[in-house]
Structures are given as structure tokens and as C-alpha cells.
Amino acid sequence: MDDQNESSASNVPKSSLTNPQDDADRIRLKRLAKLQAQQASGSSGSSTPSPPTPPPPKKAKTLPSPSRPQDRPPIFQSPRPVAKPSAPPKLDITIWEPETIVQVLRVTLKREQAERSNGQIIWLKEVASEVASQDPSQRLSSEIADQLVMSRLESGSAIQTSFEYLTGCWRRLRAAKSAFFRRGYNPEDLTRGMAVFEKLHGLIVSYAGLSLQDPSMFDQPPGKITGPKELLPPLLVSETLESSNVEPFLADLAARFDGDGLDDILGGVFKELMQLVAMDRQGLASTDGESSWRSALGAVEGLVAMTRIPEWNPRGLTSSFIELLSLLGPAARLSVFAREWPQIAQTYFFEPEKRSQSDIDGSNTNLRATLHILQQSLFTIFNSAVRAGAPSREAVLDYLASALNLNLKRGGMQVDRTQVASDGYMINLQIVLLRLAEPFLDAKFTKIDKVDPLYLIHSPRLDTSDETRINATVEDVKALAGEAKATSSTAPAPNFITEVFYLTAAFNHYGLVRTLGFYNELERHLDDIDKYLEGIESDRSYVGTPMEAQARAAVEKVKGDKARLNMEVFAYRVQILDPDLIFRMIGFTTFLMAWLIRLADPAKKYPTQQVTLPLPQEVSPAFKTLPEYFFEDIVEFYLFLVRHTPGSMDLAGKKELVEFILTFMSSTWYIKNPYLKAKLVQILFYGILPYGRDKMGVMGPILNSHPTALQHLIPILMSFYVEVEQTGAHSQFYDKFDARRNIAYILKAIWTNPDHREALNREVHVNMANFVRFANLLMNDCTYLLDESLSKLSEIHAIQIEMASDGWATRPQQERKDREKALQGAEQQATSYITLGKSMIDLLKTFTAEAKAPFTTPEIVDRLAAMLNYNLDALVGPKCLNLNVKNMDKYRFNPRQLLSDIITVYLNLSDQQEFVRAVAGEGRSYKKSLFERAGGIATKRALKSSTEVEQLMMFVTKVEETKLLIEAEDDLGEIPDDFLDPLMYTLMRDPVKLPSSKTTIDRSTIKAHLLSDSHDPFNRSPLKIEDVTPGMRRQTFVQICKLTHIISDTELRVKIEAWLVEQRSKGMVVDVPEVAMPMDVED
């Protein structure tokens, strides 16, 4: 594609009449000379200027010799006598040439021949007299063709304009030439005949162009349109030219007048044609024949001359006017979108809820077929211009860049759509670019390295100055631009592949992706209307009041708005769900994903070789300075696909999508925007939702089979579960629950695969600290969500009791409305909390069964036990009746399932002594009776097997025994203040001194704090959990402590141990637990 520099039309030789102005002057001089000759009496000479030099004949085409019998393939039948080859006919030029001129030009020097033609052939009396006076033997020949044409044009016609006559000559010339070649003349005769044809062709085309430029040169019939507008009828309805002749005629015209007035000839024609499109108010639904957009676009297909007129890419336009005033703008803005073409939505999708699906599908099919015709015509026009040569190709690129740069506001958060180009205009141009890009979007990515990664830095074509970068500051961009400028003098010009690649990516952002955003806003608006109408229907307090009529009128207006918006939604779907568009977009996006991974890959071998994960910490300047939309648009497009048309994912690109997600989720420091990372997880979430017969959705199979996914998916999801805790956004508290709900669902979906479980066990052993962070946050989420769920259920229960009481009806109306509103709010919140809480409990249940050690670390185990005990008390304790709300299914609340899940967590950790001790030491909620009641309910409701219930009771027995030991240990008397943890006010067992605040605190306490907050709790200085976590070896731990200045307070620890020994000697038995790592670390 990048080598498409030459036009086929460039091979057509121009006539020797190369200057239209000279031709026009010559014609005027001839007229003047004739007038003077008529006034001069008795003059036998003529002052008529000599005819112009005839154009040089074209090089004769090499034609095959007449086929001979021996050249034909053998026919297996009875032999026949071989016929002798016939000799080629002989061309008698003295007979053939006059006949051809009469046939083509419809003129003669013989009066009787004209009379026999019934007016079809014109007798040129004056030319005949002049020729006879000079040479009586002179016959019709190409040598006097100029005089013949000139005389015929000057004689005029009552019915034909000069242009109509000349186009007729051109058509007859083509027919004569075709017949001539079929005769099979020998090469010498062919050459002689071609010289005649070339002479006539040059004269006809030259005079046709001059007639269009200045029709006043010749006498024209009154009342007929002349000049450039004369081209419209043959272009639209082929009155004087057959449809097969229109394009060749215009090609001849373009070849003759290229650079010599062609813009004057065709510019007005192009404008008139596009005006027909602009005036066609029916748009894609038009059926007006020759005045429709179909005829207008068909007329200009392949005419690259349009790129040379000013209207092709007018200067000084605003964003919304380029589609109205540029030459192809009116055609490119044709679409199905209701904002610009409301009649399409009203015609094809009126009251869609009352129509069958097959009827809707029929409307979609018809409209998409029409769209494809439009988009094919636009592509043909642009592609012809691209292939015609460097000037027209550059004009195409400039126009597309102008359309883009003028509409950068489309990418804003709040878009005034009256001030930017329409969705249809942007998407149609984007489809043109997608088709131009097809040659380099091959399955093996063979041309991936032809895309210049620094194009946006050193090329001024696209304006990206205000774009947010993937992971770079303004200073980073300026620094890279400075480096590029220093070498720009030696850098080659951007190739066509690079130009198209970046233009397509940009049009995708400001075109389709922004349109998808408008569509999503439309759907949200419809959801809001449904909620409003639902609320109005449930609240009928206005009935019987003076406001009833006004309220009903408002409801009807909202219903009307809903009907209109519903039609708009269906119209949007015609384009954005078009399989052809989706297929092309998948092809381009797949290439873009592979290109981004290759750009980030230090080995630069992807996709032929898998990239090593995680990526290096150092991000290449070329990658991080790219506009963020390169990454964002991939995410938005695939998120749209998996939500609205997941079946499209089966076309192609799933492998590259999974590799793209895994690559950048394993190396999240490459992407600055936290929302983009969360949306990558969202794609996986929607991709594994059941779809059709696929229980694991369209992406489940590849997530369970791709080697990179089997190795990295579990660690990636766990790491992002931790990372999303702090996004820096004002809505991070709620954002994290959305992301973690998605993560929980994905983990649950892939958990049955043993390879994924093996990856989890590997992560626990290799990266224990990271897993502890994950386990801590998972436990925190469970604690918060279950507490909020049960709290909201208690609130709902209380309000329902109020509303069921006898005094409810006597309360003031406003008070009742307030309580009803509070009930609705509590119901919405309860549903959300319960749904999220269930996901977190499922995850906790799954992970405590597979990886127990992280949940029994000192920084987690006590809080985990407290959370479980509290919720067990809420479910089976005295306050459980507060959770007895009406219609539990409405809130997705299943207390029996929740109880079963909590029991499962107890059972999963029942063999861990640390967990047993933590449950026993939790003094707020733990009661033996709660477990006995839970076991009874589990047996009665068949929530657990008898074996599991027995195991639960054995666990309670161990807890009770441990509780007795703890009570004995806790009788320490008064603990010195120096020995108390400053946060928990408990006896420190492993005191450490923090590097910044110099505060001494128990190691388990500060580790628990840092799992949620990476700052020193006493002065808010940054502090990492690694700074207080010993490594696997004592030497490593010593090095960490020295580097980070985390100092084990050995002196204090010795004092505490001595004090404990003293307390023991007084009869207070204290079990001093063995510390996992030696604490006698030198300062």
C-alpha cells in the first residue's frame, strides 16, 4: 500500500494541444480571419490560421498475431484437413480514412452524401470550397480534421450543444476503434489507422474541454444548459454517454487538461454533484434516481481530479462545517444516526417493542446493505486518489487529518454535539481508513515494524499536543521531541503504512469509540427513565389531588421521550453492531495490541515469540509518550463487544486480547490510569459470563488453556486486588469493590482448573508477603460488606415493622414518604452490599481451603476470627430475628447459605492452631452456644453433612480448651507501660523501632497496619511492609533491617522476657511463644 504512487491514467499521452488558453485564442483568430475574408472582395486567398500541429500518435499497442490452427489446443477427434491460414485484410487508407471521419465527426465535403443521410451528416460547404480551391484531389483526411471540427462547431445546431456533439464524436470514435481492431490488420496498417484515431481523439477531447470552459466560443442552441453543468446528465443518467463510457471519457479529459484548466472544467461539476447529495433530505432512505446520493457518488468514483480543487479540503472551516462544506463532506455524513437523520429511526424503528425480532432484523439488514453501498463508494473514491500518485495521496491524508484535527473536542468529557462533526461523518471516514489499512493487517503481522513509533513526535500532521499520555508528563514528551528534532534532518519521510495506522487509531478514538460513549449515555438515560416511571407508578400519592392532571401529563411526556430514545437506540445499533464494521475493527485492534506489546517488549520479538512477564520496570519513552487513547480505545472497544455482542469475539483476536491483558496487568506500572487497568479486568469478567451454550462465556476456554494465563492469571488478579485499594480517585472506595467483585467472579470461574490452583500455591511459596496483603484486604472487605449488609437488613426490618403497625396510616403524609424513601435507599444498599459480600465470602472460602498459612499470620488471624465470630453471632445469636425481612430474595439474601459459607471457613482452618487460639481469644462475640446452635441449624436444614457438623464440634472443643489456657496466661497482673504496644495496648512479644518516628511497636501490629496503610502511623512517613517483614534467611533479614533502619529493640525484648519469667515465678504461668526469626540483630 505504501508503494502506491502511480496512476494508471498517467500512462495516457496528452494531446499536442497542451494549452487551453492557446486553443481558445486560436479559435478566436480563426473566426476573425474568416470574417475578414468574407469582407474582402475578390480575394482568392484565405487568412485562416494554419491548423495546429497534429498530436504525435500513440505507440501502437502490441497485438497478437492472428491465431493459426497449429497454435490452438489439440481436439481429440477424427483428423480433419488442416486449413491454410488466411491472410490479414489489406487496409485501403484512401477509402477507410474518409469513411471513418464521416462516421465519427458526422461531416462531409460532398453535398449528395449529406442529402442522403437525412440530416445525420452535415455538409461543410465552405470547407469543401476552400479545399477544392487549393487541391481538387484533396479528400477527407486527418490532416484537415481540425478544420472539419472547427467548421462543424461554428455551424452550430438547433438541438445540440457543442459539448453534446463532441461527446457523441468521442463515443463514435471508441466504437470505430473497437471495430477496427477486430478486423485483424497487419501491424503496419494498425499503425497507420492508429495515427488517424489519435489525431481525431486529441481534437475531440481538446474541443470538448474548451467547450466546457468557455461555451460562448461556439453558437449554442437557446435555452440549453452549457458549460461544466453539461457533465451532470451524462454522469448521472448517461444520456449522451453510455454508463461504460463515462469514466473513460473523464479520464481522457483529465489526461488532456491536467494542470491546464482541469480544475475549472471539473470543479464546478464536482460541486454540483455533491450539492445533489446535500439537498437529498432523505439521506440513506432516498430513492430519487438520478438526483440521489447513489447517482452522485457513482458519478465521481475514480475521478481523482477532485483532490485538486479548493473545495476538496477548504481552509478556515470550523469543526462542524467540514462535513457540510468540504467536497465529500455531504456524502460522508450520510448515516443512520437519528440526530442528523431522524426520519430513518422513525421509518424503520417506530415502536420497536411492538415489532417481532425478525421484522427488526429485516430493517437492520436493509439499512446495513445501504450503508455498505455508501461506504464502498467512499472507499473507491479515496482509494483511487491514493493510488493515483503522490500529490493526490497527500491531498487525501491532509483532508483526513483536517477532519480529525478540527474535531478534537469530540474526545472531551462534555461534548456540545452541535459544535463537532457528526458520528456518521467520523465513522464513515474511519471505515475508509480501516479498508486502506487492510493490506498491512495480515495474520502474521509481517509489516508490524513498518510503523514508526515516533511518528507523532516528529510529524505535525496530527495534533496531539493536548492529549493525555499513557505514562508520561509534558516534560517527557518535550524531551523526546527534542531528541527527535535533532535527528529529523536525516530521518526518512513517514511511509504510507505509518500514516494510515496513526490516522486510523485517531479516528477510532474520535469516531467509533466516542460514538459508543454516546450510545452508552443513551442507554443510561433510558434506564433512568425506566426507574423514574417505576417510581411514579409505585407512588400514586398524586391521585385525587389538584396536581393529578399535571402529574399525568408529565408522565406521558416522559413516556414520549422514552419512545423517541428507544428508536434512536435501535438506529445506533444498525451501525455500531454492523458485523462488517466489527470484523474490520477486530482486525485493526488486533494489530494495534500486537504493536503495543512489541513496543514494550525489550526483545522486540513479539508476536513470533512470547514476551517475558513481567516487563522491565523501565518504560521505553516511545511507549509511555503515546496518547493514552491508543490503550484506552482497545479497552473500550472490547468492553463493548463482550457486553453487547460477545459472539463477535469468535471471529478473531481472542488470543492477542488475552496476551495484551496479561502483559499489562502483570506490569501495571506501564499504565498510569487506574480505570484502564480496572476495565481490563472488567473485560475478563464479562468474557466469562455464560453466553449461549458456553457456560464459561467466550473467553473461559482460552483462559483455561493459554500457557501464559495458566502461569500468570492468578498472581495478576491477586496483585490487582491489592493495587486497587488506593487508586487516587475520589471514588476509590466504591471503585475497588466493583473491581474486586469482578476478580472474585473470575477466580471462582477458573478455580476448577488444577493448573490455576497450582499457580496459586506457587505464588504463596514464592511471594508470601504479597499473598498476605491480598488475604488481609479480602478479610477487610468481608468484614465491611457483611457488617453493612446485616446492618441494612436490620434497618429494613425495623421500617417494615413500622409500616405494618396500626398507627402507620395515622402518621403525617410527609413522614410516611420520608420513611418510604429511607426504605428504598436501605433496600438498594442492602442488595449491593449482600451481592458484593457473597462474592467476597466465596473467595474467602475458596482460598482458606487451598492456602491456609497466610490466613494464620499474626497480622491477620485475630481479625479474621473476630469477623467470623461476629457474623456467626448475627446469624444464629439473639439478634438474628432482626434479619427476618419480607421477601429476602428481593435483596438476594440467603441466610442459610451465608451460615454454611462461614462454617466452611471455620472448617477450612480448624486444623491450624493459630486460628484455634485466635477464635478462643476473641472475647467480643465468641460463645460456645453459638457454634452448637449453628451445628443444629446446619443439621436440620441439611446445610452440612454429619461428618462436617462433627468436625465443627471437635473444633469448638479445641477452642474451649485453648480458651482456658489463654485465660490463665492473661493473668499477668499490671503490665508496665513500656511493655505495652502503643496501638493495641497489649503486651509486645517482638518489639521493633520504626525508622522515622523512632516509636517502638510490636512487629505484628505494625505489619497489620501496613497491610492497609503504607505510612508510619505516628508521623505519616512512608513505610513499606517489606521493611518490617523478615526474609527466609536470617542474613537477608539482617540486611533488610540495616538498609531500612528497622531495628529490633533487643534490649526491650530481653526486659519483657525477664518480666514474664518473673510473673511465672509468682505463679502466673505464661507461655512465651517462640519467635520465628532471631531478633538479636545488630544495629
Describe the structure.
With 1083 residues, the chain is mainly α. It is built from 40 helices and five strands. The chain has a three-stranded antiparallel β-sheet with strand order 4-3-5. A two-stranded parallel sheet has the order 1-2. Strand 3 and strand 4 form a beta hairpin. Helix 26 packs parallel to helix 29. The longest helix is centred in the middle third of the chain and has 43 residues. The radius of gyration is 43 Å and the shape is elongated. The N terminus and C terminus are likely disordered.
What portion of residues is helical? Answer: 55-70%
End-to-end separation in angstroms reads: 69 Å
Report the mean per-residue pLDDT as an integer: 84
Biggest beta sheet attributes? 3 strands, antiparallel
Globally, the shape reads elongated
Number of separate strands: 5
The radius of gyration computed from the alpha-carbon positions, rounded to a whole number of angstroms, is: 43 Å
Low-confidence stretches: 1-21, 34-78, 1030-1045, 1069-1083
By helix and strand content, what is the structural category?
mainly alpha
Strand portion? under 5%
Q: Helix tally?
A: 40
Report strand order across the widest sheet.
Answer: 4-3-5
